[in-house]
Amino acid sequence: MAMAGLYRRILPSPPAIDFASSEGKRLFVEAIQNGTMEGFFKLISYFQTQSEPAYCGLASLSMVLNALAIDPGRKWKGPWRWFDESMLDCCEPLDKVKANGIAFGKVACLARCAGAKVEAFRTNQSTVDDFRKYVRACSTSDNCHVISSYHRGAFLQTGTGHFSPIGGYHAGSDMALILDVARFKYPPHWVPLSLLWDAMNTVDEATGLYRGFMLISRLHRAPALLYTLSCKHESWVTIAQYLTEEVPSILKSDNVKDIKDVLSIVFSSLPPNFDDLIKWVAEVRRQEDANENLSQEERGRLAIKEEVLRQVQETGLYKHVTDLLSVGTSICRTKPTLCHVDNLPNIAASVCCQGAGILAGKSGSSSLDRFCCQETCVRCYRANGDRPVTVVSGKVINGNGKQGIDMLVPSLAKHNCNSGSDSCQTIHPDSNDVLTALLFALPPETWSGITEEKVLQELHCLISTENLPLMLQEEVLHLRDQLLFLKRCKDGNVEEDLWAPTS
């Protein structure tokens, strides 16, 4: 059935005051003079209209993230790194947001995933005086912004739940400026702060929880450079529960004698698709980032990511993880999700398995099930100035034993490889990195159930953030912070202490 077109709505006034009206301009000028419009100028520079009727939360957040000059670390379009609604999908699939909107807790989750500091308050956890204090504080600074979740009915506006940033505050009349991201519907407008509180102090029927407000600012430490966590895939709830609740219980009930026992216990019960929990932030991409025409800034950014990955791979924990995966065939056979199909080491492993199948007189994808590649290396050779050639080497095992495979393959995109060297360290994250990052991200109390004191001391040395290089330490702390916060934000079970710091 066809729907009649609508061109904007008349802003009910009172209670709202149109920002562009004479009265709205007066409030604006007086607020500037009183120093409570400092955050306005950054926000207005990145003011945007939500691209979908249900994208108010995504538009509000992308606007604030850009105003805070937080680098998303990944490209939007062309060479540009920029927050757009289409990139805010780590906590809820975009098609689901488009159909149903997004809950308060998920917007807070998105802010964390994007690398911002967020403090979220539901109205039943706060007071109108607290809200006023935070609005005033953020309005006198351009380093903090408030996003409000409210019901439009309190302002006699059409519609129900809505998100928008607060652009300023007029202390004399106790009014807040709402920069409504639904600009196709209503212009920016001033509203009494107490009435805005009433609009927030309503229950979202979709979740049964109160609405509220959140303070978004930059983290004191750098956001994730290489890793972040994602609850885009539904399996993340099971994975997070396993890592934070089941692993400590399992370790209490099992008699572990060394680090290998600890890791074997953790890995043997991993839920399916556990690697969906890890999302690579601006990972080193073969097609995009291996371009010879990269700018100096882009090369510097990639060098930092390579350094973080190198630091991961030089930890003692990574070496233990790698050793365990290289000698145990059960994990390789039963955990296909340990591999990302588009990273170089796993492509190399696949090539070696295919080669082993061909040599054994077997071909086709079914033959891959019979082989497991324990070790791979990609070597680049150049002779007499000729174009480099690539050789993929690996040790492949099956029921008949182990064999070495060397295969000449078509040229691959650039990776860290010294011509003629015996080794080649890829800069693409792989399954070993996923497992190492997850283990580092677990709270220290995860391991407290281990009764063998010697094992516990050795484990603490391996996972202690104090022993890590600064960049990797920041990466791990950010992951741990996200893991705990994501658990609070899971759909239908947002904890009452959502606002509380996680570290």
From TrEMBL:
It comes from the Eukaryota. Residues 1-221 form the Peptidase C83 domain. This is glutathione gamma-glutamylcysteinyltransferase. PANTHER family: GLUTATHIONE GAMMA-GLUTAMYLCYSTEINYLTRANSFERASE. PROSITE patterns: PCS. One of its GO terms (biological process) is phytochelatin biosynthetic process. Its EC number is 2.3.2.15. GO terms for molecular function: glutathione gamma-glutamylcysteinyltransferase activity; metal ion binding. It comes from Cinchona calisaya. Keywords: Acyltransferase, Cadmium, Metal-binding, Transferase.
